[in-house]
Amino acid sequence: MALQKPQTNFAAYIDGESEAQKLINTLADEIVGADIPKVEGGIDANRWEKVYEAEQDYWVTYTPKTRPNIQGKYLHTDGNLYDVVKIPDYSKLKFKDGTPAVEDDGFLYEVSSVYWDQIVEGGSRPTVREKDYGNYKTGRKIQVVQFSYTDKRGANIFVDVPNQLATLVTDLTKPDGVTAYIVKQKQTLSTGDVVYLDDWNEFELVTELPDDWNYSLKTAYQWEYVRYFDYYGSWTSLKSSIVEPGKSKYTFTERYYTADPVHDVPSRVVIKGTPTVPTGIPVREYSVMLEQPTNDWNYINIYYGEEFEGINTSGDSTTTYRGACDPTTVKPGLTPTVIDQAKAQAIYEMWNTDTIVKTFIPPSTK
């Protein structure tokens, strides 16, 4: 508003009392309702009117951020969080001599670490090199290439094992006390809709892995995969070739949202005066804005000038933080603590997407 000296020499005197938090409203009402004396006596028409009134309000905006090397965590129905691992590609695993460790059926078999099993061979250990003994299968194996399962619709689904995300959940009904699952990374939006992406720390179960994976993951892949070359030669072990879960934990760059410091506007009231002027002279409206500083009742600010413009609040400011932030931290001068990332994202998108209807529009004046 451009500064301008008032165009009147007549004044009305007002008095009264008001609560501190309502002072500017009371003053504005008194001015608008005051009797203006005429120079020749009597009362003139009061040409002041209230054109804008807004109570103190505050709202919250958000900023998206990322952080690297976040461990994937699956939240199970038992309320516990379980680490997510990424299964390496074992399908092409070989021994030192180049022999494939994975058999034609796609299984990696566990074998004992003895060269000669007298019961299996039915006799004493030979004294001369005859063949490559050892590799006595213990009965345990893991499918490292592909397996299938039947989904809820009865369809047969094939799963390629390499690079799948998996987790190990406590399950006392299983012999190993755990169940291994394939999981999928996702995000549940505040609307309840689900999107699948790789930057949100939320996972859902897809299906169980074959039961042999329970033992494999639980024992950190430390099976004895051994193959002897001959009686006098050395043997090789895959024990040191298999990646342990501690080294294959699934980490990713996580997207998350933080709240910005609380935005707030003080209570404001604007009155506009339209003086009477001689015919042919443009009318110059004059405005006065009364402002109550945020949470301070010791004084008020007064601004005056011409060409005032104001937009009142639209909607409910609490929709910018309700459910997304700890309400005890949503106060002028503070930075709120986000308690629901999905709701924070939804509000961020509301602020920054033109096609989304705004649930709140802050007031503005100039």
Helix segment tally? 4
Low-confidence region ranges: 1-7, 223-236
How helix-rich are the residues, as a percent range? under 10%
Structural class: mainly beta
**Main β-sheet, in a few words?**
5 strands, antiparallel
Overall mean pLDDT score?
84
Shape from CA axes?
A: rod-shaped
Question: Can you tell me about this structure?
Answer:
By secondary structure, the protein is mainly β. Helices cover 9% and strands 34% of the residues. The chain has four helices and 27 strands. The strands form eleven sheets. A five-stranded antiparallel beta sheet has the order 6-7-12-13-16. A hairpin with a 5-residue loop joins β1 (36-37) and β2. Mean pLDDT is 84; it is low at 1-7 and 223-236.
Primary descriptors:
five-stranded antiparallel sheet, rod-shaped, 366 residues, four-stranded antiparallel sheet, 9% helix, mainly beta, 4 helices
Summarize the structure.
With 366 residues, this protein is mainly beta. The protein has helices at residues 23-33, 118-121, 212-218, 341-352; strands spanning 36-37, 43-44, 48-54, 57-59, 62-71, 73-75, 81-86, 107-111, 137-143, 146-150, 156-160, 165-170, 178-185, 187-188, 194-195, 203-208, 226-228, 235-237, 251-259, 263-265, 267-273, 286-292, 301-305, 310-311, 314-315, 360-361, 364-365. The strands form eleven sheets. Strands 6-7-12-13-16 form a five-stranded antiparallel beta sheet. It has a four-stranded antiparallel beta sheet with strand order 3-21-22-23, covered by helices on one side.
